[in-house]
Amino acid sequence: MGKIIDALKARFQTRDIPKTARGRFNALMRKEKGDTSKVAERLGVSRRSVQRYAKGDRDISKSKPEILERLEKEVTRDHQPRVRARAQKEAQQRGMTVETRAQFGFTAAGGSTDSARWRRMTEDVPSHLIPDVFEALRNGDEAELRKVLGQALAEEYFRVPGTAAEDLDVEFGEDDTIDYIELDLR
Predict the structure, then answer these.
(1) pTM (predicted TM-score)
(2) CB-neighbour burial class of residue 171 (10 A; exposed 0-12, middle 13-18, buried 19+)
(3) Given this model, what pLDDT does residue 53 score?
(4) Residue 79 pairs with which residues in a beta bridge?
(5) Could you read off the pLDDT of 12-46 as tens digits, one per residue?
(6) What was the pLDDT predicted at 77?
């Protein structure tokens, strides 16, 4: 995954998804209560393939990389829903902060001084964005998390009402532009 998802998981999950493909497959089968057609639909394979995986006639760890990626994504999506819901509820009540040292760039006219540079900051995540943070975590969507946290930092730190910076678009970069990031409750 990415640095942001890893930071969220470190703070708001109590354990990781199963490490092996077989363990992940078994977790998905448990979630779907053994319904091979639902598992097949989620993995994008035939029902017969799922039946072979379940029976042991075919080794799921030797499947195509796309299937293994989908398996990981689907298991991650369902992993610890009560823990995640409790964390989201607590974050909504208490608030959430993000502390990071990262490169931030701005959308501005060419030739401006708004090129990306390193900044260290600790800011609150606006309460209306907290559900979006947890939804992106549930979906394993690092790009969406960068977008949402970029918006949060823009609202709290960069945008100043009544100035030219009021409509500033902030870009929270890729993993190589994030030195560290931590998310916590207030």
Answers:
(1) 0.75
(2) middle
(3) 94
(4) none
(5) 888 888 999 999 999 999 999 999 999 999 999 99
(6) 87
Token pair recorded at residue 49: 């393939």
Domain locations along the chain = 18-78, 84-185
Cα→Cα distances 81→13, 31, 33, 76, 90, Å: 10, 11, 16, 10, 14
If we measure between CA atoms, which residue out of 92, 146, 101, 170 comes closest to residue 124? Answer: 92
CATH topology of domain 18-78: 434 Repressor (Amino-terminal Domain) (1.10.260)
pLDDT, residue 22, reads: 95
- Closest Cα to residue 58, out of 45, 70, 69? 45
d(CA 166, CA 40): 48
From residue 164, alpha-carbon distances to 161, 167, 174, 185 in Å are 8, 7, 26, 32
| Residue matched to tokens 């823990």 | 83
The β-bridge partners of 98 are 123, 183
Whole-number pLDDT of residue 140: 84
Could you tell me if 147 and 71 are in contact, meaning their C-beta atoms sit under 8 angstroms apart?
no
| pLDDT beneath 70, residues of the chain | 1, 105-115, 160-167, 175
Q: Are strands 96-106 and 170-172 parallel, antiparallel or unpaired?
A: antiparallel
